[in-house]
Specification:
This protein is of the alpha/beta class. The protein has 14 helices and 12 strands. Helix 2 runs parallel beside helix 3 and helix 6 packs across helix 7. The radius of gyration is 20 Å and the shape is globular.
Length: about 375
């Protein structure tokens, strides 16, 4: 099984952005020496929710500082970009990294970001589909032309040409059932940000595999992104998680404004309407405490042995073959984030990468545990 780490830099009012960035980039520099298989960059804009406006630019930096690690995005939000520029940047990163790319895409759910880029949210889904199709064509054909709804492109060629067929390693994050169907038809793999109970995530994987197979593609194991609090004792791990993961609630709603319910009336985002109830309840202390306990239960929290067991269960349910971890969240001090990452690398990583229990492909459809209420918290 492959194991990576992601850099998600949350702004803090008391600290300069550059200080936070330096700390997270130091964690990025540790990924390859500590034995991780991949390093992922996010995309967000304007609010400080995750200060990563250009994931391919950030990964280009690490392409020059690493030799073997896979460089991935989780995700590039396609409706905000000119797809030809995205294809060029992917091709260039593929060349300078020696083919070490793995691209994740999404359509985004924050109205503040759509407003900042002057793109109507109602166009998100068709823009995503057309951009994805165009990028695949641009990277797979020596020259191409395009006559679509949003883009009219004369015959051109992407240069330099990519060296490793990055278009065959495309994944997409999907929250809504409608988006999942779109991703399946494109032949993308599934990238899951762990935000719901594991049996529910497993059900999403089952449905996705069926959709992918029904349109003639071979289902791939999902990639799962999750927070990790790995500490010498369970008490320490839970203390870190309770304090720093619980800080995510306010940052999520400050960015997405789920609590006001506005997404329920936006074309293509109707399924997000249910988030309003969840985030409104967060203002109640008793519900917030229960929700935090639930959120902690679907992340990886505990001693190294606990982490191995939890990841084994998540793999059994979903069939994942690539786990992407986050070790720094909320206002966690840098020294704790590094301790978290180093302990995981020393005690958990070897088991995931070498033990027989984590090798090979798992078909998760044999496991159909009953899920409870759908408690969804946030997209990527």
């Amino acid at each position: 099984m492959k194991v990576g780490t992601a850099l998600s830099v949350l702004a803090q009012p008391e600290r300069p952005d550059v200080a936070l960035y330096n700390e997270h980039m130091a964690l990025g520099d540790l990924a390859e020496p500590l034995g991780f298989d991949s390093l992922f960059a996010l995309e967000h804009h304007f609010t400080g929710y995750s200060m990563s406006p250009s994931p391919l630019q950030l990964l280009s930096y690490y392409a020059g500082r690493t030799k073997r690690i896979t460089l991935g995005t989780c995700v590039i939000v396609l409706p905000w970009h000119d797809p030809i520029r995205v294809a060029e940047q992917i091709a260039l990163l593929d060349v300078i990294s020696g083919g070490r790319t793995l691209m994740g895409f999404g359509r985004g759910a924050a109205s503040v970001e759509y407003a900042g880029f002057r793109i109507p949210m109602e166009e998100a889904r068709p823009r995503f589909v057309e951009s994805a199709q165009l990028i695949i064509k641009a990277l797979s054909e020596d020259s191409f032309e395009w006559d679509g709804e949003f883009y009219k492109i004369p015959r051109v060629s992407i240069r330099p040409r990519p060296i490793s067929h990055p278009e065959q390693r495309f994944y997409a994050s999907s929250v809504s059932p409608e988006s999942a169907e779109v991703m399946a038809k494109l032949g993308f793999g599934m990238l899951i940000v762990m935000q719901n109970e594991w049996p529910k995530a497993a059900e999403d994987v089952y449905r996705y595999r069926e959709m992918v197979a029904s349109v003639g593609h071979e289902p791939r194991p999902p990639i799962i992104l999750t927070n990790v609090a790995c500490a010498p004792t369970r008490e320490e791990a839970r203390e870190w998680a309770l304090r720093y993961l619980s800080e995510k609630w306010d940052s999520i709603d400050n960015h997405y404004h789920f609590s006001d319910g506005h997404l329920g009336s936006v074309k293509g985002y109707e399924s997000y309407g249910k988030l309003a109830k969840t985030y409104t309840k967060m203002k109640d202390a008793s519900y917030r405490s229960k929700a935090t306990d639930f959120y902690l239960s679907i992340q990886i929290v505990g001693t190294p042995d606990d982490c191995v067991q939890q990841i084994a269960e998540l793999r059994r349910l979903t069939g994942m073959d690539h786990l992407v971890t986050e070790f720094s969240f909320g206002s966690m001090p840098h020294h704790l984030a590094e301790l978290n990452m180093r302990l995981f690398a020393e005690r958990v990583l070897p088991a995931l990468q070498r033990d027989a229990a984590f090798q090979g492909v798992i078909d998760p459809t044999a496991e159909k545990t009953q899920a409870g209420d759908d408690r969804l918290f946030a997209p990527a």
